Amino acid sequence: MRNILLIQQSQVGEFNFEQQLNNLGFKVTLVNNALQALVKLESNNYEVALVDLSLERLESFWLLATRKLTTTVIALAANNSTLEKISALEMGADDYLAKPFNLRELQLRLDVLKRRSHPSDFSAPTYDIRFNDNDSSITCAGSNIQLTNTEYKLFRYLFERKGKVVTKDELQQRVLHKKLGKFDRNLDMHISNTRRKLTQQNLPRDLINTVRGQGYSFNF
C-alpha cells in the first residue's frame, strides 16, 4: 500500500480529502501542523507529503524538507494563484495542486513522480475482475460486489472496452436501450451507485473514469 503524509487542518463538514485518498487505496497519515509533519517525515517512509499551504509556521518544514529529506512534496493551495504556485515551487515543493482537488489528477501526478524517482520499481495497480452473470455480481481484487442488473451490464460493457472512451449516447442505447434525453440523469445515477459500491470495498471509484464532455472509460 502506498503511504501518504497529509499535512492539513482538520475540516468539519467539507470535502474529506483523507477519506477520499483512503478510498483510492492509499494509507494516509494525517497531521495538522508543521512540527508533527517533520517528526513523521524523519521517522517514517512516505511516497509523498501533501502540504496545505494555509497552515501557519511552515518555514521550518520547508527548510528541513528541501535540505535533508527525500520525500516528494506536493503543495495544496486554496486557489490557482500563479504567485502562490511560484512561491510554493521556490520554497521546495515538487508539484502544486489547487482546490477543488481532482483526485484523478492527483493520482496521475503521483504516478508520474513515482516513475521518475523509481523507474525500475513502478508498476500500475492491476485488478483481477471476474463476472457472475447468474446474480449480477463481480469479484474484484478478492472482494465480491453485488450490483443491480443494469449496473452490472454497464460495468461489463465498459470493462470489455477498457482504454476506450464510451459515449453516454452509446451506453444509453446499447445498455439501457433508450435514447439519451437532454435532462436524463439515469445513466449518471447508475455509474455513481456503482462507484459507491467500489469504494465500499476499498477499490478506486475511478475504475470507471469520467471523460469530461465525452462519456466514460474503464481505467484498468
Strand-helix topology:
Blueprint: E1 2-7, H1 17-23, E2 26-31, H2 34-43, E3 48-52, H3 59-67, E4 72-77, H4 82-91, E5 95-98, H5 103-117, E6 129-132, E7 137-140, E8 143-146, H6 149-159, E9 165-167, H7 168-174, H8 186-200, E10 208-211, E11 215-218
Helix pairs in contact: 2-3, 6-8
Mean of residue pLDDT? 79
Q: State the share of residues found in helices, binned by percent.
A: 25-40%
**Strand order within the widest sheet?**
2-1-3-4-5
Between the first and last Cα atoms, what is the distance in angstroms?
Answer: 18 Å
Low-confidence stretches: 119-123
User: Helix and strand string, N-terminal first?
Assistant: EHEHEHEHEHEEEHEHHEE
Shape descriptor reads elongated
Instruction: Please describe the biggest sheet, giving its number of strands, its sense, and whether it closes into a barrel.
Output: 5 strands, parallel
Total beta-strand segments? 11
Helical stretch tally: 8
Give structural notes.
The chain is α/β, with parallel strands linked by helices and about 220 residues long. The protein is about 40% helix and about 25% strand. The chain has helices at about 15-25, 35-45, 60-65, 80-90, 105-115, 150-160, 170-175, 185-200, and strands at about 1-5, 25-30, 50, 70-75, 95-100, 130, 135-140, 145, 165, 210, 215-220. The strands form 3 sheets. The protein has a 5-stranded parallel sheet, sandwiched between helices. Helix 2 runs parallel beside helix 3 and helix 6 packs across helix 8. The two termini are about 20 Å apart. Mean pLDDT is about 80; it is low at about 120-125.
